[in-house]
Amino acid sequence: MRLSHFHLRTEKETPADAEIVSHKLMLKAGMIRKLAAGLYTWSPLGLRVLRKVENVVREEMNRAGAIEMAMPSIQPKELWEETGRWAKFGPQLLKIRDRKEQEYCFTPTAEEAVTDFFRQEVASYKQLPLNFYQITTKFRDEIRPRFGVMRAREFVMKDAYSFHIDDDSLHAEYRKMYDAYSRIFTRLGLEFRAVAADTGAIGGSASHEFHVLANSGEDALAFSEQSDYAANVELAEAVAPGPRPAATEPLRDVETPTQKTCEDVAALLGIPLQRTVKSVAVIGADADGQPQFVLALVRGDHAVNEIKLAKLPGLADYRLATEAELQDYLGSESGFLGPLRAKKPIRVVADRTVAAMADFVVGANRPGFHIAGVNWGRDLPEPEVADIRNVVEGDASPDGHGTLRLARGIEVGHVFALGRKYSEAMQCTVLDASGKAVHPAMGCYGIGVSRIVAAAIEQNHDDAGILWPPAMAPWQVAICVINPKNDPAVAAAAESLHAELNAAGIDTVLDDRGLRPGAMFADIELIGIPHRVVVSGRGLEAGTFEYRARTAQEAEQLDRETLLARLRG
Ligand code: ATP
Ligand code: MG
């Protein structure tokens, strides 16, 4: 490819309306252009990268035995009514009408369409298992499209759907897809983690999200560096610490006139924050459904995990207690709350860490006072103990291997064992070995193809621009020609190198635009080409080409043979 015959349009200024680095760099490099909120045109340059991602996904799906197909973007309302999702999908589902006033939606995902295809095409268990996939445009009317193609409304997704005669076959395919995803993200050169997702709502089936680790990620993840344990922070278990030490201090009131936070109290008393306990007052329901006052206790440096708390009996719909309720049950304003000396009976739930503490400090339920030297069993009854906090960096990994690290993640893939939800709702059956009609079990497997392009940039960039992992680079090599119009020998040497590299299967672009070297190099760095070769008159005289890897600090002068050997890897 010659850049003089391509459309490359880079920007010097960093676009003001882009918040994260991938969005900025994609705009600056001219990979995408906004058409409307959440709708982007892929420029020729952007499309080259998108296609590279698609091809890796396609190759690995094929290798894993999935079969490519394509389903319509526009799908009839009747189909979506069969599963109840016409109503349930909510405002993300873009609904449209044709000239006959028939209603349709723009596909956000395709369980209905593929199940409809399957029920017309496949009759016998002998044809199973089957895994169909497509790489197509999806539309979701996201409430807050942002970060460019990271959270767009129209985006490219690979979606696959598998069908099975029994659960064993489904779980074997699930594992296969999990492994295929791991290969895909590894080949793409991404640092990623497979994270167990909450399976509560789908009843014991398996679900994993694949996340690319990046600071701009929307999800908080906890993972062990010594094992493959990884979970959303919302779900990661905080394991119980070792046994509780013996009590050594007497119980005593301490004056804390203006100290309302654990930090301030610890500073005033000159003790570590880890010796204080925070009391969070909420209202749940007792066994009879009556309001119940609950004090949730976490260590001063920890935070209550609302999702874990809501999983405890009576707390599914809990809310924070009001100031009036604090006065009523504890006789104190917030800032001085604690589990001792309540005015009325209350339920106390202690986090596992708090239950293992001795000689700790809590609020005295009296404005201006805390109580120090508090000990379970001696000063107050043993509490109800539960895991109700967020894990923090350095906690023991729940799988017993190593300690946890926290990171943010961008969800780029999702594998899901669906079970029979769709096949049952859509009366989709096959005949089993005994001739009985049974509903096949299904799995679904999504990859955010266009999101991967942005996620890769979040992980791979520097001040000069993008640093593509080789598998995603628009070209592997850029040949920059200095002054081609005035020096036919230079132009010819560059042409011949270009032809030879492409013939050797190394995707190479010739920058024959005749730009000044500085502007040309800035473009090539910005768009992230992994290898740069400069062809100049001076180099030709010396019999060398200037070579520089995108990630290298210095350029090297190499003769032609050495250069070719280097680029052939
Ligand atoms: P998210 O939580 O990010 O909204 P999701 O759980 O809705 O994702 P899925 O329904 O599992 O996503 O879709 C499969 C994949 O499609 C996701 O893993 C993600 O990579 C991608 N994806 C989903 N929504 C978008 C979007 N608005 N823009 C770009 N990619 C998306
Ligand atoms: Mg979503």
Structure description:
The protein has 16 helices and 31 strands. 27% of the residues lie in helices and 28% in strands. The chain is an alpha+beta fold. A hairpin with a 2-residue loop joins strand 1 and strand 2. The strands form eight sheets. Strands 3, 7, 8, 9, 10, 11, 12, 21 and 24 form a nine-stranded mixed sheet that branches. Mean pLDDT is 95; it is low at 200-204. Bound molecules: adenosine-5'-triphosphate and magnesium ion. Residues 109, 140, 142, 151-152, 155, 157, 411-414, 446, 448, 450-451 line the site of adenosine-5'-triphosphate.
What is the approximate shape?
globular
Query: What small molecules does the structure contain?
Result: adenosine-5'-triphosphate, magnesium ion
The overall strand count is 31
- Helical fraction equals 25-40%
Question: What structural category do the secondary elements indicate?
Answer: alpha+beta
Which whole number gives the mean pLDDT?
A: 95
Q: What proportion of the residues form beta strands (DSSP E)?
A: 25-35%
| DSSP summary: helix tally | 16
Stretches where pLDDT is under 50 for at least 5 consecutive residues are: 200-204
Radius of gyration: 30 Å
- Sheet having the most strands: 9 strands, mixed
Q: What gap, in angstroms, lies between the N and C termini?
A: 21 Å
